Amino acid sequence: MDNLKGSPTINTDIAATNDKDLVELAGLHAYTYPLFESVLQVNNTDYTVIDTRYEDPTGLDAMTVVNMETEQISIIYVGTDGSGKYGKKDILTDAQLLSDLTPAQLSAARSYYTEMNQKFNQVGGVQSIAGNSLGGGLVGAVAIENPEVKAVTLNPALLPEGMMDPDKTYDNITNYFSSYDVLTQTLIALDLHGRIPGKQYEIFNGIPELTKLGTNHTGYLREKDGRQYYVIGEVGKPGYGKIYVDADAHIVSSIWTGVPLYGGHSDRIEINKENLDLLASSLQSHVMERLNLAHEYLGNSVAIVDDEASRYYERLSRLQKIFEEMFENLISEPLFMGITSISNRLTAEIDHLVSLLNVAESHAKSLNYILNSPPAELLEHIFRTNVSVEGIFNEIRGFLYDLKADVQDLSKSLIRIISNKIPELFEGGKELWYDAVVSELKAHYGIVNNNRDKLLSHIGEYQKQVQDVASNFHDRDQSLGQSIRSKSTHSNSISVQGTNTYKLEDSPYMELRMKIKEFQMDTSYSAFTASTQALLLPILHKGWVITLNIENALELLSSTIKGATKFALDYTIPGKLFGLFSDFDDKIRNSVNNALEPLDEFAGTIEGIRKGLDRLMAEYPTLLENFRPYVETAIFNNSGYYNVHLYNLASIAILREMEMLFDDVVYQLGNHKAEAIEALCEVSKKVKGNMGILYEQVDRGTIN
């Protein structure tokens, strides 16, 4: 749809629209397809839509806006939008950019620029163009043919092969690459970013998560309430907060000129009262506002660490309970339930086996009595026999006592693992802490917090010095410089804030950065695996051997008792004695059955115990593998640990940006003959140095 009506009345004195506004227009507002004459508020500046070109058959979507303060006209090209009427054309164009073809949409973008530039020629024409994603590619295609137009892109698509002139630098084009943008990072990895014309600068916005791919690419959230932050953590819990993602907030510009501070310093300015006032004002507002946001991020990190520290015993107790349950349920054998305590079912069952053995032995003795006391009438017709099983019963009884002792050793070893070995999983670190990872983070943050407070105080003092110098700049420059350096107030009614020493403390902690958790896991869990296997497996194997011995002895006992029915008979027994012999035979068989019945139950239980011990040996490595993730969470909750990383990333992004800003401040204040300005420059260097120290310390709290 085209709206080519007359534009609002504007002046011909055109000033530059800054990069921040263009990035927000391209990454946020363009995707909302604002209607003709809509007013868009961007960084407290109103932009009015004076033309739209939506639903072009080539897939082109674009709008033309006017900055109502600077009266500059800009074209904003919309990026890939597969949901639009001609969204498939966007997808096609994206694919064609990888070739040497010139997609129709690029030609349409150039035509739209020419049309708008002619339409608004009397008021200066189109002075800037901007776009994100595919829109950035369209900007590049237009800007390489129109070097007089300012072009700004955010995470742009590349141009078709051969479209750019390799001998040109295209200094009119500025491209901002977000740190976590998949498109531009992929192009860099494939060495295709050379097909993006102009200067290329990294900005530190976004969140490194797969679920944030879209936002990382466009640089903005598109929510109805306009919020530009992601919520981190859970409401009401320590560490709950927000991380702001709006891309333009991360573009660092000169305090004085608004020119982005990338690729070198801004042009030198005259250091006068007006510019010093501007510096003091920016320090008090923008700089402190950004640093306070970094302070807030750090505060949330500290809250998460403090919460983990306060829950040490809860984390330990839970991990111990998990190990206990995992071991008892490892083989789903009821006999082994409660094995992690001295009084357990398996021990009681062994006592029951002793009772069964005693019953069987009693019946075996009765059998012997019968065998040795046949009726008198049969004495001359049978050979006397005897079931000699007393020794076997005693041997099995001894094995049972050994097995019971072994099971008690197993329970004691499990108790030792739960009481001693599991707490050792947490121990270690630089100071041999009982809660190594949490304690090292806590110790590090104790230093970082103090250094953060010193930095804020340092900047506050510096802001006061700048303001004092500005207020008295025309009076006595030399005296001002001496006052700044001597930490004193000049007597001749010229008051200036003196300089205190703000030396940030070194931190000996977090030298492995956030890999301390990985290191703790690897070292402590390797030790836990080796020590617990050395503790348990010999006991389990010993018990298994004992049960095997019991089964062998039991088989011998059973066959011996059964043999009692096979006594020798005189085959010439008179017929009148058959009935008497039959009664004698029945008594023997009943007695044998009575002896074997408890032994059958006994054998079934022993087999279950043997198989259980065998499976425990086989499955314990699986338990160790399954237990590891629980240990990892117990050492430091995974989501909380990652949130600390995210907050620290957000914080160091701001610190890096403020370093860039102060680097320009140092440059602007340098090489001035005025002593007061030289003194301010020295303080600026110290502030910048302290920012670098704090940045490095906070950066240790990020995951590589």
From TrEMBL:
<protein>
    <recommendedName>
        <fullName>Lipase class 3</fullName>
    </recommendedName>
</protein>
<dbReference type="InterPro" id="IPR029058">
    <property type="entry name" value="AB_hydrolase_fold"/>
</dbReference>
